[in-house]
Q: What sequence folds into this?
């Protein structure tokens, strides 16, 4: 509930994690696809769109890109035709299957993807051993010296490289995640990775759409209203990250890449971090630096992560949140919390829940401590005043009790048990997410709550003892005065709960459990007064006149309480404003 910055990744958290290949680029042509049936017209001029029909053979240049995507892939297809694996690879495998591309061949070797390499390569035994690569377009391009055009291998000139990069930017500007693909025959599958991945032939691009979750934009807006800043840190390229950031309501202007983070000193990053909402092409090491910069600036940071390499950031974050659906076991163990549905909006809900829990704890601590402090003051001050005002009645030890032990225990049982439990189940106050986060070092009992506790305790003691001594003077009966004070404290404590709740803008009907708890407690107390149980508690039934005295005492207590509470609020609000 005290978080003021959320650093979130993109895929699956702010997006739906349902990757779908919607656009391809191969041999100078763009291929537009729908979810299952491609649309568009065919053309043979460079840059024109061509259609791929899953019921027909693909053009060779398109087939090569799809073939590479499904071979350089670790997705498994279950008996029920469900795809299991990384969402990106699932999208690549699905589009190839829909296009009728089902290559066969034994995988001889895999050079795994890493956030530093930004690419993955496999060697497959077909007619001859062939290496297939996929990865970030710029990472793939730097390993290529040729390009496949119209089924023929040609030179990858600087102009063609720039054309591919421009096309990548065009895809990314439409919030597509873009991967590049390449291949080449391999003479020795056991050669080192550098040799296998050198001199590749560029095949094309695939752009995947992972639409933002519908509820994320509203959740980010709610967080902003609550004084919580959201930072997007993703491995996608800068254009894609910026486009997604704008779709969910973040300011993408001035977005930085992971290399920008690396180039800045800690002091420079500490200054720029306050103005940047989107980071692209970030690695786990970049996430740690971003986290350190935010924490050094005094922020309480929520950090999300799902991979093994995210463990350092999750461990160091004030609140590390691992993904429950796609997160690794290492990430879950390193985190403080697990997000079961991988949804950013749930983080917003958790922050609201944290604020509500803290507020409810503060309410019943205020309630319990103030009432018990008031009881202590009643007993302590009552004995002192009694010995001065009525020395003949408070001369002996047995007569020097304002409230007997059994009455004090009964007050605690009736007033502090059921109502306090019900108070802990209070619904969230209206406007809970319109307030700024509380300081992380702020305790349940801060200065304002402490003043409230002391004010209530003193008022309870003053009005209660005033009523006690008035009744003692009028009736001449210590037992009747004790019974009246006993009932006054119970009634005041039960009804005063709503006084505490009203500060948070909550009506009595908003918590029916509390209404029931107060009703049961009052009924039980009346049972003690007006049944033979009174003999055990050594109290007497009260008359209507005495109930009138209690009503007058309660009104005095309530008026003074409300007046001092408003004064207390005005003083602390003016200090906060200053």
A:
């Amino acid at each position: 509930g005290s978080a003021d910055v959320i650093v979130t990744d993109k895929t699956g958290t702010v997006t739906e994690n349902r990757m779908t290949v919607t656009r391809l680029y191969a041999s100078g042509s763009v291929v537009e696809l729908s979810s299952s049936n491609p649309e568009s017209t065919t053309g043979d001029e460079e840059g024109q769109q061509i259609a791929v029909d899953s019921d027909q053979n693909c053009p060779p240049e398109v087939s090569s890109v799809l073939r590479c995507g499904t071979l350089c892939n670790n997705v498994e297809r279950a008996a029920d035709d469900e795809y299991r694996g990384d969402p990106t690879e699932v999208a690549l495998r699905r589009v190839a299957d829909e296009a009728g591309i089902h290559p066969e061949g034994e995988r001889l070797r895999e050079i795994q993807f890493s956030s530093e390499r930004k690419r993955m390569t496999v060697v497959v035994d077909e007619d001859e051993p062939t290496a297939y690569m996929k990865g970030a377009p710029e990472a793939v391009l730097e390993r290529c010296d040729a390009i496949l055009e119209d089924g023929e291998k040609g030179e990858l000139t600087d102009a063609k490289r720039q054309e591919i990069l421009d096309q990548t930017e065009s895809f990314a500007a439409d919030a597509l995640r873009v991967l590049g693909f390449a291949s080449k025959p391999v003479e020795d599958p056991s050669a080192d990775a550098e040799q296998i991945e050198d001199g590749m032939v560029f095949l094309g691009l695939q752009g995947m759409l992972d639409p933002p979750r519908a509820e994320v934009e509203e959740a980010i807006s709610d967080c902003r209203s609550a004084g919580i800043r959201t930072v997007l840190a993703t491995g996608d390229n800068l254009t894609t990250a910026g486009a997604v950031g704008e779709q969910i309501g973040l300011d993408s202007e001035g977005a930085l890449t992971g290399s920008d983070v690396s180039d800045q000193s800690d002091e420079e990053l500490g200054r720029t971090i306050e103005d940047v909402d989107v980071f692209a092409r970030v690695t786990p090491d970049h996430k740690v630096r971003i986290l350190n910069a935010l924490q050094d600036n005094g922020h309480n940071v929520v950090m999300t992560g799902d991979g093994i390499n995210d463990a350092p950031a999750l461990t160091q974050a004030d609140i590390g949140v691992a993904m429950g659906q796609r997160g690794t076991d290492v990430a879950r163990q390193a985190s403080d919390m697990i997000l079961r549905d991988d949804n950013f909006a749930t983080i917003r809900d958790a922050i609201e829940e944290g604020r509500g829990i803290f507020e409810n704890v503060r309410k019943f601590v205020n309630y319990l401590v103030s009432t018990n402090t008031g009881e202590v003051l009643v007993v302590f001050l009552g004995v002192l005043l009694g010995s001065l005002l009525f020395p003949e009645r408070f001369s002996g030890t047995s007569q020097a009790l304002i409230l007997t032990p059994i009455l004090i225990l009964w007050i605690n049982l009736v007033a502090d048990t059921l109502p306090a439990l019900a108070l802990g189940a209070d619904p969230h106050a209206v406007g809970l997410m319109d307030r700024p986060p509380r300081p992380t070092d702020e305790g349940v009992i801060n200065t304002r709550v402490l003043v409230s506790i002391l004010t209530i305790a003193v008022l309870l003691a003053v009005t209660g003892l005033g009523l006690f001594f008035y009744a003692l003077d009028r009736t001449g009966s210590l037992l009747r005065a004790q019974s009246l004070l006993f009932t006054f404290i119970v009634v005041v404590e039960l009804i005063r709960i709503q006084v505490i709740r009203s500060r948070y803008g909550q009506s009595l009907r908003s918590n029916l459990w509390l209404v029931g708890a107060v009703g049961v407690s009052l009924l039980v107390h009346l049972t003690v007064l007006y049944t033979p149980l009174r003999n055990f508690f050594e109290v007497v039934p009260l008359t209507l006149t005495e109930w009138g005295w209690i009503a007058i005492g309660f009104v005095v207590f309530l008026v003074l309480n409300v007046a001092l509470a408003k004064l207390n609020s005005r003083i602390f609000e003016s200090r906060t404003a200053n």
In short: The CA atoms of residues 298 and 330 lie 28 Å apart.
